Backbone:
């Protein structure tokens, strides 16, 4: 089924949702449309998910299609792989990306390789949704992003919306995709009352079904002086920085990746070819990361030297510390982006 | 048991100390989080898992332990840390993210390490169990009679790590004791909805080790079962499993609306709060009220001092975040 790409549409009327509500709405619509779609995970039943991703689904679809699981990730994510091979389309939640260690085999050796090992005869249409990100003092086992870890492993698609509109459209695409899709959602954007939410993540989200295509980045601000690539929370930090930079006469273009794998290299290259400067900002660990991959892409593809050496900003290669004075010192923010961009506007070619 | 006056007094005092510690956390946690609750704000950001109600599990087990015995605990670690003798000032300072905290503020409330008393904890379900088997084997191979205890929740008994660790401990005859604090909820999911057996103690048989079930959140019952299990481990006879039916008087974390709990459940549990119940029992059995009062007072004073220390302690230098990534 092909649906219009919502990014090329103008919304008819304002209907502002949080990412959490957009995700649960998308899952609910797919469950209505397709009886093979089911949801499972820890606390996703009556509680509606710790991060609100399944609110109302248990009441609507019942316990057979909205299954609370034991804390047995190896088993239930493995089971999702088996379901996906057998005609179902499971949407599975594992609360924090930090918890994937206990069940990684089912993900990167089973789900991600099912199609390949079967010569394309067996698919694995499952969605694995998980929260990422820190900045709220939850320390080193509940604050990681691990974008690059999942982006690195072949056979999985990886998405992360920066706003509710994209969250809904990406979720519909993810559920309809015949491959395993890791659906990351950032805690700073999720719209849970108890966590605080970046206002820009709550935006107009149509009630009707629509898909945001997987593998397509979005230029969320056009500019001519520098390209800032971000994803999830760092998109909003970049937007805030760009607003300030505008006052000083620097015109930044901002690319929201939306999908980590497959990476939309074309959109990034077109933007950097235009601006001649590149800063990649993410909140995962720095080395071997999103920024490294994007900068390598640019270096490999663009023949002429850039106006300034491409730069990365990310969390340094250390575990995420608990104490706020350290955590905020290490994580990217709008002020740090602004300073880095100003430094990059000087001559260095 | 009733003859063991000093142990019981110690257990009571540690329960009071632990509860007072949590009672001091509560208002501090809500500083900066009212009127709008935002987990990121205030002097204690992040998740906070309180141990109110589960104190009997910690004290009844740790009453048998020495400093050289190892304990691994969970995301809900305060009562166990306190009963194991973790430095109270440094523990409070760590929870406040301060310079003289156990890890200089790097770890936080779910990641407390105090090697002086061989205590550690981790925020990932059941993942303290393997390390406990390892600590037990290290003691055995080094010729020590030290033992290890892994605390876990009943939800953790459905993790692969639980089953693998029990099997490995049994195969290696490791001097380890696995202690399940069964508070009947894994966040929102009741044990009855996610566990194939009515009682996790049944699972001990599958790994050829003795299992003990302790009912009614009873400190003396825990003490008795733990005594048997720890003696068995210390004497080289192998591992045991203990399941304690306890209660979680607070939410999974602070701010949890607990919509999944039946109405009045918390109220009913509070009526059976193990601390006043234990005091009443001790008094009935002849303990001097003044002696209990003094023990309570001293316990509370230590906690108050620890919080004063933590509050007054400085924050670390942000750049110190880069220290200790490698040994």
Residues:
């Amino acid at each position: 089924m092909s649906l219009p790409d919502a990014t090329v549409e103008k919304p008819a009327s304002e209907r502002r949702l949080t990412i959490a509500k957009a995700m649960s709405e998308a899952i609910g619509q797919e469950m209505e449309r397709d009886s093979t779609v089911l949801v499972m995970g820890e606390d996703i039943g009556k509680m509606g998910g710790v991060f609100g991703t399944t609110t109302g689904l248990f009441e609507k679809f019942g316990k057979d299609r909205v299954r609370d699981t034991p804390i047995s990730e190896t088993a239930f994510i493995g089971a999702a792989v088996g379901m996906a091979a057998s005609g179902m389309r499971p949407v599975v939640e594992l609360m924090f990306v930090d918890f994937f260690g206990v069940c990684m085999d089912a993900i990167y050796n089973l789900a991600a390789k099912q199609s390949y090992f079967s010569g394309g005869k067996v698919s694995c249409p499952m969605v694995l949704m998980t929260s990422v990100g820190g900045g709220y003092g939850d320390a080193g086992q509940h604050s990681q992003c691990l974008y690059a870890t999942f982006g690195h492993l072949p056979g999985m698609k990886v998405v992360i919306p920066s706003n509710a509109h994209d969250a809904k459209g990406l979720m519909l695409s993810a559920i309809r995709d015949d491959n395993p899709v890791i659906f990351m959602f950032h805690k700073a954007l999720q719209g849970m009352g108890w966590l605080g939410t970046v206002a820009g993540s709550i935006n107009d989200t149509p009630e009707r079904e629509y898909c945001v295509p997987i593998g397509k980045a979005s230029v969320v601000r056009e500019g001519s002086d520098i390209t800032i690539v971000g994803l999830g929370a760092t998109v909003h930090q970049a937007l805030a920085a760009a607003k300030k930079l505008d006052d000083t006469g620097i015109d930044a273009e901002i690319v929201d990746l939306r999908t980590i794998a497959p990476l939309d290299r074309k959109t990034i290259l077109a933007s950097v070819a235009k601006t001649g400067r590149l800063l990649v900002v993410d909140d995962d660990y720095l080395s071997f990361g999103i920024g490294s991959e994007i900068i390598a892409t640019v270096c490999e593809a663009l023949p002429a030297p850039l106006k300034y050496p491409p730069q990365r900003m990310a969390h340094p290669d250390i575990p995420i510390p608990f104490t706020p004075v350290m955590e905020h010192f290490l994580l990217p923010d709008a002020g740090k982006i602004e300073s880095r961009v100003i430094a990059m506007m000087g001559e260095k070619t | 048991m009733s003859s063991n006056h000093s142990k019981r007094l110690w257990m009571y005092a540690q329960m009071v100390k632990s509860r007072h510690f949590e009672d001091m956390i509560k208002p501090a946690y809500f500083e900066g989080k009212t009127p709008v609750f935002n987990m990121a704000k205030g002097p204690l950001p992040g998740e906070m898992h309180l141990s109110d109600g589960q104190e009997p599990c910690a004290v009844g087990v740790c009453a048998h332990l020495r400093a050289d015995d190892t304990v691994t605990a969970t995301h809900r670690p305060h009562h166990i840390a306190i009963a194991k003798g973790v430095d109270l000032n440094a523990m409070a300072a760590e929870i406040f993210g301060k310079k003289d905290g156990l890890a200089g503020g790097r770890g936080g409330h779910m990641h407390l390490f105090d090697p002086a008393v061989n205590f550690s904890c981790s925020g990932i379900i059941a993942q303290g169990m393997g390390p406990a088997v390892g600590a037990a084997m290290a003691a055995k191979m080094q010729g020590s009679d030290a033992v290890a205890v892994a605390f876990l929740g009943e939800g953790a008994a459905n993790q692969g790590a639980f089953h693998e660790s029990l099997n490995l401990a049994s195969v290696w005859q490791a001097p380890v004791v696995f202690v399940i604090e069964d508070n009947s909820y894994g966040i929102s999911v009741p044990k009855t909805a996610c566990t194939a057996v009515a009682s996790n103690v049944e699972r001990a048989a599958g790994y050829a080790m003795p299992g003990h079930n302790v009912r009614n959140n009873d400190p003396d019952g825990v003490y008795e079962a733990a005594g048997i299990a720890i003696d068995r481990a210390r004497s080289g006879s192998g591992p045991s499993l203990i399941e304690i039916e306890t209660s979680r008087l607070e939410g999974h974390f602070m701010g949890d609306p607990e919509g999944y709990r039946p109405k009045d459940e918390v109220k009913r549990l509070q009526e059976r709060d193990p601390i006043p119940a234990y005091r009443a029992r001790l008094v009935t059995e002849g303990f001097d009220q003044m002696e209990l009062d003094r023990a309570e007072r001293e316990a509370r004073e230590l906690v108050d001092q620890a919080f004063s220390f933590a509050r007054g302690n400085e924050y670390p230098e942000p750049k110190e975040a880069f220290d200790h990534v490698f040994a």
About this structure: The longest helix of chain B spans residues 5-30. Chain B touches chain A through 51 residues (CB under 8 Å). Residues 5-314 of chain B form a domain with the Rossmann fold fold (CATH 3.40.50.970). The mean pLDDT of chain B is 97.
